[in-house]
Amino acid sequence: MLEEIYGECETKMRSSIEHMQRDFKTLRTGKVTTSVLDNVKIDYYGTQTSLDQVGSVIAQDATTIVVNPWEKNLLGDIESAIAAANVGANPNNDGDQIKLFFPAMTVEQRQDSVKQMKGMGETAKISIRNDRKHSNDQVKKLEKDKEITSDESKSAQDKIQKTTDKFSSEIDTILKNKEAEILKV
User: What share of the chain is helix, strand, coil (3-state, %, to 5)?
Assistant: First the structure.
């Protein structure tokens, strides 16, 4: 029973870190990545579809993204969807493809990205603490129902706390590395 609780706790905490890292992909760093367009959807024959499903999305260099739709009649829809998404660059439609020229990030923009990143990290830590509380509550319920002894409950809660500490320090390491990446010119 306790092993199930440990396993579930660890799985949920790992999931929180993975979610945080997916969120990081929406942050802009010094080099532009195509993931800044991941949340942009267009109406493709009545279905909300991501850009990479209707054309190729390529980072041409450190500041330019090119969207080359497979159907040229989608250019206007793609252009307006990117403009509405406010990704930090205005779409340039040349009749064949759409180019996004991102300006180099200012120090202020980098600091804003770091601030957003730290917020994402704090959200992940809160999620991990909630997972710890949920697991501890399950252990306390087992103790209350006399399925485990108080010593087993105490050692189980200690183990859950060690798991929490491990994932919290992993988040801190990831945040430190990501901050260095964002602030690097």
Answer: 65, 15, 20
Partnered with residue 93 across adjacent β-strands are 98
Q: Which of 61, 56, 64, 72 shows the shortest CA–CA distance to 91?
A: 64
Q: Confirm or reject CATH 1.10.3720.10 for domain 2-26+106-183, answering yes or no.
A: no
- List the chain pLDDT tens, one digit each, 185 residues: 889 999 999 999 999 999 999 888 777 777 788 888 888 899 888 899 998 899 999 998 888 999 999 998 989 999 999 988 888 788 999 989 999 998 888 888 889 989 999 999 999 999 999 999 999 999 999 999 999 999 999 999 999 999 999 999 999 999 999 998 888 76
Residue 25 has which token pair?
């992909």
Q: Are 21 and 29 in contact (CB under 8 A)?
A: no
Q: Where in the chain is the domain with CATH 3.30.1360.40?
A: 34-101
Tokens, residue 124: 């992940």
Residue 133 and residue 141: Cα distance in Å, rounded?
A: 12
pTM metric for this prediction: 0.72
